[in-house]
Amino acid sequence: MKVLVADDHDLLRDTLGLLFAQEQDIEADLVPDTQTALDRITRDGPYDLVLLDVGMPGMNGLEGLGRVQQVEGAHRIGILTGNASLTMAEEAIAAGAAGFVPKSLPAKSLLNAVRFMCAGETYLPADYITRADRAEPDNAIRNKLLPREFEVLRHVARGETNKTIAQMLKVSEATVKVHVKAIFRKLSVQNRTQAAIMARNAGIE
């Protein structure tokens, strides 16, 4: 996976650079502002994922997202933020962002979020989702799924990719995909994000 991170905080860029350098499947470039990100995409793209700090110079809120979307070479674009509201998260997703990533995420969760978005999914932390007044309890969901499907759902709720789940359960990635599709159908959800939110609202993690 080829990832570009644009953030104006030197310490954060250095920290993310060290984090990504430890991952064999992630190649990361880091730049300090929106214009440099645009130049880098044009010069060195395509990137599987571009992470943009919503508060850095040149972004002007979510306007910068639109600018980057117009450049060829940024397959998916996620928003990186230190302090933002649920409203902004929803606006970012509605504007076509691949995800909304708080800088406060633990390292493992951030890596999972990056892989999740690179896999074509939309990432939104459960903390940013307004919980339904009546979330289905654990046993109600468990009764709808086969034991292996329920186990897969627990991993999905943690933001893990099909490849990671397959390795942990010692099955093929194709088998995991079959289970995930069955989970979507049985829980009446459209994607992994919805399934993860439903699971976490029910206390399944």
Automatic annotation (TrEMBL):
Domain HTH luxR-type: 139-203
Keyword Membrane recorded: no
Annotated GO MF terms: DNA binding
Domain Response regulatory: 2-118
Gene3D superfamilies: 3.40.50.2300
Recorded superkingdom: Bacteria
InterPro entries for this protein: CheY-like_superfamily, NreC/VraR/RcsB-like_REC, Sig_transdc_resp-reg_C-effctor, Sig_transdc_resp-reg_receiver, Tscrpt_reg_LuxR_C, WalR-like
Pfam families xrefs: GerE, Response_reg
Keyword flag Cell division: no
Keywords: DNA-binding, Phosphoprotein
PROSITE patterns xrefs: HTH_LUXR_1 (PS00622), HTH_LUXR_2 (PS50043), RESPONSE_REGULATORY (PS50110)
Residues modified to 4-aspartylphosphate: 53
One example of a Gene Ontology biological process annotation: phosphorelay signal transduction system
UniProt protein name: LuxR family two component transcriptional regulator
